[in-house]
Amino acid sequence: MSYRNLCAAAVVAVVCAAGARGQAPNAPWMNTALSPDRRADLLQAQMTEAEELTLVRGYFGMDITINPKFPPPPEAILKALPHSAGYIPGIPRLGIPAQIETDASLGVANGRHMRPGDQATALPASILTASTWNPDLAYRTGAMLGTEVRDKGFNVLLNGGVDLARDPRNGRNFEYAGEDPLLAGMIVGATIRGAQDQHIISTAKHYAVNDQETGRNWLSADLNEAAMRESDLLAFEIAIERGKPGSIMCAYNHVNGVYSCENDFLLNKVLKGDWGYPGYVMSDWGGVHSTVEAANNGLDQESAYIFDKNDYFGDALKQAVADGKVPAARLHDMVHRILRSMFANGLFDDPVTPKPIDAKADAAVVQQDAEQGIVLLKNDAGLLPLGAKARSIAVIGGHADVGVLSGGGSSQVIPVGNKPSQEFLVGGAVRVLPDHGLIMPFDKMVYDPPSPLSAIRAEAPQARVRFDDGSDAAQAAALARSSDIAVVFVQQWLREGSDAPDLSLPGDQDALIAAVAAANPHTVVVLETGDPVVMPWLSQVGAVLEAWYPGQSGAKALARILFGKVNPSGRLPITFPQSVEQLPRPAIPGVDIAEPAAGWQDNPNLFDVDYNIEGANVGYKWFEAKNLTPLFPFGYGLAYTPVRYGGLTATAGASPTASFDIRNTGRRAGMGTAEVYATPPGGVARLVGWSKVDLKPGETRHATITIDPRLLATFDTTADVWRVAAGDYKIALGGSSTDISATATIHLEAGTIKP
Ligand code: BGC
Description:
single chain, 755 residues, alpha/beta, seven-stranded mixed beta sheet
């Protein structure tokens, strides 16, 4: 593996400048008054077929051998590789910039290979951003990320994970935005918009129903069309409407027996047809399985072809076009979509110029994100905030003397100020399943400094703060016994490519908490997890915070919440079940199925995941339909100040509304989130809107939301329309999906909405 970096070295200046700014500044397609489509047309009129083929096939961003049957890329390409996810060469003759791709959800990823001097801000996990229930903050987080993408010399960001959390053990839920299509679509859409407003392309991914990691290359996600439209596809639809991503990444899995990246229904019918999506579809790395089917069924760009079994969009596509198996017009359409997105997102007009990131400004954004996304799950007798009453504090476990945990996989970030040699790595992964197996950092546990221990000491200079690593429960309990307060840090490490085996904290962490809580009832548990976990010790502890993977400002945000400088306002974007028995599939499908000898490149449909069990009733909707009581419901989260919701009125019509009051009845300023659910006749409640507001002590704020009628409808697959049924709809207002303080009824006439 070489250590070259095109956009940091002298050679980059030549290629980037020639490729990006263009040698054709006066060319007609550089007229910014024209539409992106017109500009793409004008440019395409000058392109040869060989040039068109260049744009539809990507290189892996690093010069490593994945499949020896592929010859190494030409020397000029090798020199240009950005040492990241992917690279599609530009065409200097026409001033077409290279597409330089980077992951993504935890920051500008550098976990695969960190170059000396590399700097990136480690973001909180996307599930934490979803827990903020704050699309404005998600926008600012996306904008910060987009700025770093540019500063680091990239112009395509592989962010925008919006697959629904159908399984609370999914190893990538931390990269997604929870179980509800409206919340996920709004948060991810805002993140995409923030990033793209910095003149780069972002994706939405992984399209579609990529809802578990176990056997992700070999499973078929089976779900009937109506349910899919009302759940997973609706999340994409909303995210795409809000964010207008330049690209959509199709997924590894089959959907109803057909690979996502050659799925005519998903790509041609729904995405490009019904939704009128004008951008391009790129494959996930290793997600292509054919030339003719993939091209004709809607794939526009093969990413990092060396991950695929064959070089499908290389010479094979050229031949297929020559043979008429892929119409020349289709190749033209693929290229048009790519160029159109490049024009629409400023890749021609505002080329990236690498420069140092503004680490301080970026840290402030991620701190706000963490402060609003950490969820207070329990707080008995006002144990939190700690304040001056805590004279001695025991900080226990979870490597809290080092940093906060982050997630693993392609999104991994080694944060600002760290050299690879300083990575803090510990063993004991939840479960390591066969994966690409070539890229070791995928499997490393990375802790983002600073440590919670130092952050707590900084917030409580008056207190005696002592640390125990938690490896010996009796010793940890002894420290807790001799302290006023015990704060126990526990963790669940998740990574791309595998799922959590169950809902339990790994190892002996439950026993550690129980021992500490028995020694000191003033025990606070801080969860650093990527998924919900069960809490057999819940009744014994005084307080619980779900911090997810809170990123490089996580320790500071946690300490500020613990000591009351920040009033927590996070809400769960995912239901916490009491046990796996409450899930639609108590066992993870495919967990016992052996990987084919040929690995991920040869991926027949080995098993099916039956999502028709719950259909569109994902998460809290399933719990209501089955009359199950969760451990913590969707939308739940406490604050240090009591917030009340009332004064609900609702109007009917084509765009129904709900108006209500949110009142801070306490003596502390904070944020309150009023959640609105609607129940169609004979159905279960669905989130239809919310309002998160700042409230001074005693303050009441009035809010009105407009309800998207698709959220009240069912999808009629025969007529291809959303149908709102005539009848009475219950509108409910509250502080979570199960904590309802006011209801109203509206009567709606039957209606249809075109997708
Ligand atoms: C992941 C994608 C990622 C891609 C490029 C794949 O393994 O599924 O999310 O963007 O790699 O790194």
